[in-house]
Design a protein that fits this description.
Length: 353
């Protein structure tokens, strides 16, 4: 994770900057011009700025497709046809063939796990009937009951594909998926044996997404709905948002970093415009919280006070004085500060660059 905020840097600065600074009159050379070691002045100064502070970060991601799933064989036999990798299969089109018998795609969230016949009831019945109705095979009421009217519609559907009209339909005829699918890979090529429950294809949806990982401690930066921009392999950028955040933390893909991470997905605002090879590396730019119209100083201007809390060295009117401040958000190498009579344009001490 490549972060825009500098929390770690702030900790280091505060660790070495502990202590207080005595009020000292400015030497004859003017602000910053005298010997800082002898005059008590800081070695350099930076202005207090007023503006918006954005908590941003970058993450390495992978460009892919949504809804990856395996399509398992519904019957034993020899695989006689499979679609080419990267092709798209829509409703009522062939997913694959076993022993010359086509298994066709229908839309639905549940599996086709049995042979449906008159008298059967269930969600799988309703899914099949709604697909038949969408294809124009009507004459029944789409519900969860498989009637003789359903069987008659099935026979008309079977006739249109030139197969034996049985009025029944099972896993060797139909496979359900939530929508049209893209063929990611073929698990059993033509000529190989298919076994019920063994993968024949791996498919995805046709919508482009990006997946990336965040440390658990940083996951609040990318909640569902967070807007992002993605740097694509061709050098262009595309807007999107965090679509989902994983609920299970586990070690990341980097062997050198075993800290627990969560996996997030990004959906694009215009997914149809996204090109690039599957599994291409991309960069995700996240913008988290924005604090508007706040005072900020460089992180390395902070001092850890002996009495507790944090302070700044304010250089003003030929003198340097220490003020105690309250801290807000860290981002972009700066930190939000308040209190101590601060205002935009004041100079505060920082280490010499």
């Amino acid at each position: 994770m490549r972060r825009g905020r500098a929390v770690a840097a702030a900790v280091a600065v505060l660790a070495v900057a502990a202590g207080t600074v005595a009020v000292t009159q400015l030497g004859p050379r003017g602000e910053g011009g005298g010997d800082a070691k002898n005059s008590g002045l800081p070695p350099a100064t930076a202005p207090v700025e007023r503006g918006d502070l954005r908590d941003s970060a970058q993450a390495d991601g992978t460009l892919g497709f949504d809804r990856e799933r395996k399509v398992n064989a519904g019957a034993a036999g020899t695989v006689t046809w499979t679609p080419r990798t990267g092709s798209t299969v829509e409703r009522d089109e062939r997913l694959y063939e076993v022993d010359g018998r086509a298994v066709r795609l229908m839309y639905g969230s549940g599996p086709m796990y049995r042979t449906l016949k008159p008298g059967d009831e269930g969600r799988d019945v309703e899914q099949l009937e709604r697909n038949l109705a969408e294809l124009g095979y009507t004459g029944f009421t789409p519900d969860d009951e498989y009637t003789e009217l359903t069987a008659a519609a099935v026979e008309r559907w079977q006739k249109s594909h030139g197969v034996r009209r049985t009025g029944t339909v099972g896993p060797g005829d139909v496979a359900f998926a939530p929508g049209k699918v893209r063929v990611k890979s073929v698990g059993a090529a033509a000529g190989e044996q298919a076994q019920p429950g063994a993968p024949v294809l791996t498919t995805t949806g046709d919508e482009r997404i990006v997946t990336f990982q965040l440390d658990v401690a940083e996951s609040q930066l990318a909640k569902a709905g967070t807007k992002v921009t993605v740097e694509l392999p061709d050098g262009t950028t595309a807007p999107g948002k965090v679509a989902s955040v994983g609920r299970t933390a586990k070690p990341g893909d980097d062997p050198a970093d075993d800290s627990p991470k969560v996996t997030l997905t990004v959906s694009f605002d215009e997914p149809g415009d996204i090109g690039g090879f599957d599994q291409s590396p991309v960069t995700v730019n996240l913008t988290g919280e924005t604090r508007e119209d706040v005072l900020t100083v460089p992180v390395n201007a902070l001092l850890a006070l002996r009495g507790g809390g944090f302070g700044l060295q304010v250089v003003q009117g030929g003198a340097v004085r220490e003020v105690k401040v309250e801290l807000g958000m860290f981002a972009e190498g700066r930190v939000e500060v308040s209190g101590g009579g601060l205002r935009a344009g004041m100079k505060v001490g920082v280490p010499k660059i």
